[in-house]
Specification:
Layout (H helix, E strand, L loop, with lengths): L6 H5 L5 E5 L4 H12 L3 E6 L8 H4 L7 E4 L5 H11 L3 E4 L6 H6 L1 H20 L6 E5 L25 H19 L8 E7 L2 E2 L9 H10 L4 E3 L5 E2 L2 E2 L1 H16 L1 H4 L1 E5 L7 E2 H12 L4 E3 L17 H7 L7 H16 L4 H12 L5
Parallel strand pairs: 1-2, 1-4, 2-3, 4-5, 5-6, 6-11, 7-10, 8-13
Antiparallel strand pairs: 9-12
């Protein structure tokens, strides 16, 4: 597997002002913790925390950064926060990120993922301090024909379900802002990123395979699988985050060369079925059992989705660092540590340093 072999890339964030939307979510919390390791000056902007376990709270990040409670659908609040902070880097992670929830509430999904993104882009348009914008969408922004080869950045956008459609729409909005406003700013680089399924410790969302496995094991109940043969490009959450860091630094230094869209995902050899993932978690946790159930709903659920990441490999020299087996082992270790009364802050920091072991 590959590596980020340039210490200067990580040094790019020391002392720099970094604005992150959605910093309290699963991916956002890991990213905030990682950027703190790099000595960045961070302002996070996100909704109030939901009830239940919170990786963000476990890491005490509220007291380590400038924490703003706000909604990306509230343009005035978002723009005011960004202008007051004057960031050099902006990472947009805020989203309604669940496919099942998008069926239950499509209006909220489109409002958050499309209009929230419009508000973020317009806030950047009016904030001259921003030099590098990384705008995170999803691999599900592609019109998924379930073919066996990976989607490239110039393949057709689309979406069967409201979540996927909202991410495709967010990509179109970004493209309009890039060509209409950002290309005329010589010192602003802006890019979208599309990552495959991410897993890791600290995720407690409903209807995602790892949290579902952990909850079932913790409650001594069977892990119920609706679609055991569905395959996904599983990768540890730190994999795409390392790509976002690398891309952001490149955008800062060479804005026009690196602006555009980028895929970050594992090779096809790393793909596993949902059942294989659940089985691996059981083995690592030392307990648990699987129950195959039929889906009570007739909602569309993709069986196959793969990204082609040649662009990131060739132009950014980015490659995944951990094989899927390492990813599943690290993910299980995180939850097992917490279930045995260990420190989330300690295990998170250890895993960040293990991932970037020659650099941190």
């Amino acid at each position: 597997m590959g590596k980020i072999n340039n210490r200067n890339i990580l040094d790019s964030f020391a002392g720099k002002k970094v604005f992150i939307t959605g910093h309290t979510g699963f991916k956002g919390t890991w990213f905030t913790a990682l950027l703190k390791e790099l000595d960045a000056d961070i302002m996070g902007y996100a909704l109030p925390l939901e009830l239940g376990p919170s990786h963000f709270e476990m890491l005490n990040l509220k007291n380590k950064i400038k924490n703003v409670v706000g909604d990306v659908r509230d343009y005035a609040s978002l723009s005011e926060a960004m202008l007051s902070f004057q960031p050099e880097y902006v990472f947009h992670l805020a989203a309604q990120a669940l496919v099942k929830k998008s069926y239950a509430d499509p209006v909220d999904t489109f409002n958050t993922n499309v209009m929230g993104s419009v508000n973020l882009l317009d806030a950047v348009k009016h904030c001259e301090s921003v030099r590098s914008l990384v705008y995170i969408t999803s691999d599900k922004c592609y019109e998924n024909l379930e073919w066996e080869w990976g989607y490239r950045e110039n393949d057709r956008l689309g979406g069967h379900d409201p979540y996927s459609a909202s991410k495709a729409a967010a990509e179109i909005v970004f493209s309009a802002y890039l060509r209409s406003f950002f290309e005329s700013r010589p010192y602003l680089g802006a890019a979208t990123t599309r990552a495959g399924n991410v897993i890791g410790g600290g995720d407690w969302a409903a209807d995602r395979i790892i949290p579902d496995c952990i909850r079932a094991i913790d409650n001594n109940k069977p892990i119920q699988l609706r679609n055991p043969n569905a395959t996904r490009p599983w990768q540890h959450v730190l994999e795409p985050l390392s790509g976002y860091l690398l891309l952001a630094a490149k955008l800062f230094d060479s804005p026009k060369k690196y602006s555009g869209s980028w895929n970050f995902g594992p090779p096809s050899s790393e793909i596993r079925t949902v059942e294989e993932v659940a089985t691996s978690i059981i083995q690592h946790m030392g307990k648990g059992r699987i129950e195959i159930i039929g889906s009570p709903q007739q909602q569309h659920e993709a069986n196959l989705l793969q990204l082609n990441c040649d662009k990131a490999h060739q132009l950014l020299k980015w490659y995944p660092r951990w094989h899927v087996d390492e990813t599943l082992a690290a993910t299980s270790e995180w939850y097992k540590t917490i279930m045995e009364g260990g420190s989330a802050e300690t295990i998170t920091q250890i895993q960040i340093k293990n991932y970037f072991k020659e650099l941190l």
